[in-house]
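Give me the fold.
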Amino acid sequence: MSDRRFVDPSDISPPRSAYRHGIRARGEVLWLAGQVPIDEEGKTVGAGDVAAQLTQVMHNIERILDAAGAGWPEVVRLVILCVGKENVAPLREARTRLWARLYPDGDYPTATFIVVEGLASEEFLVEVEATAVVAPS
């Protein structure tokens, strides 16, 4: 695990959801490409179901973290792209359930949530980029 410190100043509004305002971390940076809801065969998972798609996306991220010798505690930043305002509430609900499992201690990464008009495929409702900081190898 990398050396990290959460930065949530008391003189600004506290985070309104499951994220941190800032994280200082020491180690090697692992940049993950944006992950979309496709399985190991390249097929879209959860067509029309943003919760199922988020679950697949986080599974893909977890596989990459595992391959790099990292885990969820090393993730310092997530960028979540959500197609359409109508998917925001169900995506937040799914995120709350997933984060309870991925971050049981409440030590969330920083996060940015962006609503977009579309992604690379019309079937994709969510894409997530991740950045992790891991202990030097």
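Residues 12 and 25 are 21 Å apart (CA to CA).
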